[in-house]
Amino acid sequence: MKLKLISTGIIMTLLLSFSCSEDEIQINPTEGLTKIAEDVAINANTKVEIWADEELFVGYNTLYAKLSDATTGESITESMVQFIPMMSMVSGMSHSAPVDNPTSEQAVNTLFPGAVNFIMPSGTDIGSWKLKVKVRNEIKDVEDFVELNLNVAVPAKVRMQSFATDGGMNYFVSYHFAKKPKVGVNDFKVMIHTKQSMESFPGVTDFTIAMDPEMPSMGHGSPNNVSPTHVSNGHYAGKVNFTMTGDWRIHLTLSKSELAKELYFDIDID
Fold first, then answer.
1. Can you give the pTM of this predicted structure?
2. Mean pLDDT for the chain?
3. Domains (ranges, CATH) in the chain?
4. ∠ CA 200-201-203, rounded to 5°
């Protein structure tokens, strides 16, 4: 009988432990993220919070929209969410930036993930960024938006590069690691966009990319790399192998038709 009671107690403790773990995941969906801005879409009665992996920078930034009922505070997990970035320049001109909007109207652990590839920084002598976030209150059948002020900084090491062709085409190339890069083989993405207009920056799907990682301070590269190939919407997925900690340089050669462009990104591996 004692053994049966002890076993029952252990099972209950484990069940409670698992239950608490699940609750913590639901309660803390933004743990480890940085809050960027928030406001309330009045007509939709929806509080909109924007979070990111880190403070915003020139380059590819993953953004997470967290929505909640402005009255009750209850999380909203079903909604249309759309990001519309806009830079107002001191010259009087304005332009947008490449965007990956949330692909589902269902939240992932109460967050709607998307991304913006900011192509220039904020600055008093440059201009200012705003992010318009459209949402939809499904219960009220109301669409509304908030407009948030953003600060976009220049990163310590370049994370987005641009170039123009003789034909007048402008391309924007950025990179992204889903997780902090480490020693070993890492999933690696390159994003390529072009400027179709001041408000439209579609992904480019027909580049071929050759990748060659190098450790400049040691004078060697690394084996087992997979050059990025196109998967969707201007995203090219590959794998890069960092064989030791230190300074690394990822050389990329982009080519299509008669166009060939060489560039690189420097990355420190801890």
1. 0.87
2. 91
3. 34-150 (2.60.40.1930), 160-269 (2.60.40.3340)
4. 135
